[in-house]
Design brief:
Elements: E1 3-7, H1 13-26, H2 38-46, E2 50-56, E3 62-70, E4 79-86, H3 95-109, E5 114-117, H4 125-133, E6 137-138, E7 142-147, E8 153-156, E9 159-162
Parallel strand pairs: 4-5
Antiparallel strand pairs: 1-2, 2-3, 3-4, 5-9, 6-9, 7-8
Length: 163
């Protein structure tokens, strides 16, 4: 399978929403608790600085996505933030790594100077290993910063990389 990344297009919206909602439903990574429907998903993805979708070039199947947007405004507006989602049955195929690398490129192209992750959940070992591999810096630990789906709290580890 060859994977490429392109900007979200109308025909990729429904599968992108499905992949996003699967992560939200798992309740172990994204801060969002509300699922997207077609209209809210279209609005949500449209309001990002960039929404990229990873797709299988042979079948055009959407296998992952990311959103890129400012992390803050004004004097901190040069810092962006991103979130990543990979289709459940495609995890472990380095799609997440491709998405992160692409978001770094798009962050640079969009004029951002830093990419920051506010809430990497401590149990997300794959993400932690990937961010380390790609040269991100950990900023410490925020105890009990993330509410898991089961009602318990887990530590989060913010990260950043200069673009």
């Amino acid at each position: 399978m060859e994977v490429k990344i392109r900007e979200l297009e109308q025909e990729s919206l429904a599968p992108a929403i499905e992949i996003w909602n699967n992560v939200v439903e798992e309740g172990i990574a994204f801060p969002q608790m509300e699922l997207l429907d077609y209209n809210s998903g279209r609005s949500f993805f449209r309001h990002q600085s960039y929404t990229g979708v990873a797709y299988d070039t042979g079948t055009d199947e959407v296998v992952g996505l990311y959103i890129l947007h400012p992390n803050n405004v004004g004097r901190c507006g040069h810092i962006c933030n991103a979130s990543y989602a990979v289709k459940k049955d495609r995890k472990g195929m380095h799609i997440g790594e491709r998405l992160v690398k692409h978001s770094i490129e798009m962050g640079r192209k969009s004029g951002f100077g830093i990419l920051q992750f506010n809430a990497v959940v401590k149990s997300n070992k794959a993400a932690l290993a990937l961010y380390k591999k790609l040269g991100f810096t950990q900023l410490g630990i925020i105890p009990n910063g993330f509410l898991l789906k089961d009602g318990t709290y887990e530590d989060i580890i913010p990260h950043y990389i200069e673009l």
